[in-house]
Write a structure and sequence with these properties.
The complex is a heterodimer. Chain A is of the alpha/beta class. Chain A folds into three domains: about 1-90 and about 250-285, 2-Layer Sandwich (Nucleotidyltransferase, domain 5), CATH 3.30.420; about 100-240, Nucleotidyltransferase, domain 5, CATH 3.30.420.40; about 290-325, no CATH class. Chain A has ten helices and 13 strands. Chain A has helices at about 40-55, 70-75, 85-95, 135-145, 150-155, 170-180, 185-205, 225-235, 250-260, 280-285, and strands at about 1-10, 15-20, 25-35, 60-65, 80, 100-105, 110-115, 120-125, 215-220, 240, 285-295, 300-310, 310-315. Chain A has a five-stranded mixed sheet, sandwiched between helices. Chain A has a five-stranded mixed sheet with strand order 8-7-6-9-10. Chain A has a three-stranded antiparallel sheet with strand order 11-12-13, covered by helices on one side. In chain A, β7 (about 110-115) and β8 (about 120-125) form a beta hairpin. The longest helix of chain A is centred in the middle third of the chain and has 19 residues, at about 185-205. The relative contact order of chain A is 0.16. Chain B is α/β, with parallel strands linked by helices. Chain B folds into three domains: about 40-165, 3-Layer(aba) Sandwich (Rossmann fold); about 180-240; about 240-390, 3-Layer(aba) Sandwich (Rossmann fold), CATH 3.40.50. In chain B, the strands form two sheets. Chain B has a four-stranded parallel sheet, sandwiched between helices. Chain B is globular and about 70 Å long. Chain B starts with 8 loop residues before the first helix and ends with a helix. The chains are: A alpha/beta, B alpha/beta. The interface of A and B includes residues 83 and 119 of A. Chain A: It holds the Pfam family BcrAD_BadFG. Chain A: This is Acyl-CoA dehydratase activase. Chain A: InterPro entries: ATPase_BadF, ATPase_NBD, CoA_E_activase_dom, Dehydratase_Activator_Redct.
Chain lengths: ~325, ~400
Amino acid sequence: MTLGYLGIDIGSISTKGVIIDEDRTIIARSYLWTEGNPTEASRNVVRELESQVADAGVRIVGAGTTGSARRLVGAMLGASVIKNEITAHAVGTTYLHPDVRTILEIGGQDSKIICVSGGIAVDYAMNTLCAAGTGSFLSSQAHRLGVEVEEFGDIALTSKRPANIAARCTVFAESDLVHKIQVGYAREDIIAGLCNAVASNYLNNVGKGKKIDAPVVFQGGVSKNAGVVHAFEEQLGMPVTVDPDGHLMGAFGAALLAADAGPITDAESGPFASGAFDFEALLDFDFKTREVECGKCANHCEIICVYRDKDIIDSWGNRCDKGAVKTTA
Amino acid sequence: MADILHLPEEARSRVAVEERRREPKLGHRKFKRDRHKRIKVAFFRYCYYDPAFKFFVEQVLDADFLTLPEATKRTTEIGEQNSTDYVCTPFKHILGDYVEALEAGADVLVQFGGPCRLGYYGELQEAILRDMGYEFQMLNFSRGIEQGALGWAKQCLKTVNPDINIPAALPKLAATANMAVKLDEARDFYLANAGFERERGAFRRVWASYRDALRAATADRDINEAFREAMDAMRAIPLDKPADPIRIGVVGEMFTAIDERSNLELDEKLMAMGVEVHRMMNLTNRFIRYNEPNLRRSAADYLTYDMGPTSTLTVVAAHRYAQEGFDGVIHAKSAGCTPEIDCMPVLQRISADAAMPILYLTYDSQTSDTGLDTRLEAFYDMLSMKKEKTK
């Protein structure tokens, strides 16, 4: 019987999960849409992962979560590691590609660049006030053009003369795009132009002032788009590697960090109460999030409480100790 | 009146360059002063300096100081509602403070003015508040600036209290400056050490009682005594400080880099992770002991000209942190702060030359706490992993 570690990356658009064994190889992978329901999506991901390792006899002894719903799902799973997505991506990628110097990442709502030197992250940047050129923008434009976003890359590669699309801002990009559709540009040229716009927008905003050295690894959902990969290669003038597991790198990083933390032995309740992950325990309970307005002072903080059935298992959002909520489990 | 187009060329140019200063038309009513009523003066909330503002009002201006309660979400909402969208975030916070001060019965509002757009904010805010229907006087230090200290003194006499005893007020003015210096000095010690306290909250308690003591001070002697006591108390707090802790320098614009409400408690967040925080930007270094040409020379490789309000201090501080081998620097600015945007290419050069990462944070009134936590946590993880590896 081998020991396994679970890593889940709950993003705004998709939820990713992996199970790694003691040798830190990925033995199960899952990728599903979040569809606005992170708890249900993570349950489905865990169920899919379980079914993939059911015959191998793996005992899952630890879990890590990352992504924007990491706190909620971390509380739900009783995870030992709850890490931000930047660290998780850096850890995951540098493990698989020890010689990487630059990690480009474009997800559903965010984009980041991580500079690596000697196997450790030395600098990073992440989009702040603007989410221009991320995955959700591409998928809404795909919808407008009547193609599936998954086909985007292949269509883009057939273009001989990519359209020039304003890249600075999605609002301008969109009106420029509509204009070019209406004057009759070929669809593949528009799509290729859009891919170029995503790449140049990324390099001008997130990548501004950062030195991009080879080898470059590109990941996140958008890395599955061959058109954007091609645009990056053209604009950077260097090869860009896309790992087949690139979209799972955050989950992989979270699993690695959970493996570093070791098996969970002191859980009093939750799925890890018996020492090994019990999927049934996850199904038995109902997880709910409720917002409470604190009335202890004039600021009225919104406190977020996560309930497992009737027990409060986690809470956050209070600015001072007056608003601290006791967990009841 | 003669039609301006038909004037001879010479006369027309004379019209164009005529230099006559006009008072801005803000619909001032004649200020009727009830000689038996004490004037209530309110400042906006700014960082941890309210004891110094209180001292200034009570001891120098000889008026009553209106203490505002902690800012709440409502403060920001009022400010946002009544400001233009693209004005920088401090403007919105300050406007919210003014409305709350007027609701609490303030007679006079104080605006510093300042070396960037802030210099125009006083007048704009006054106009907005009058449009909202409030009646008050504004002590705006952007007015009278052309005459320097004399102009400011005239403004104080005119708007707050015509009976200020000037010979008695001058040493109190020096004491106000001393209080700001003493606040900053204690704050520097707090930032460098509070992240390592053994008992959580010990530093915060001393800091709060120090500010309480300063609020009660009436003379220089009280200030120095409160400072000595606070420093002794802080030095006595047991620490678990590693020999080589992670050190982060905070640089940026005057409001967002320092003010806890504007930067969503950046200091506390960093210290909670166990970071030694340094920040050169404060009233002492920017105003009281500011010598721009000298500062600029200390970073002559990067600066040739004075680029504006806080740019020199931002670049010089980042340069100094790089020289001292800090692990990282955080650059905090409000959205649309042009002087600080100008600094960013210079900071990028410093960062590349010294191989010291810089995290750039842009705040507006919608900035989320969660997003900030993610970025700070990642920055900390990166610095600590780097530190471990290079040991």
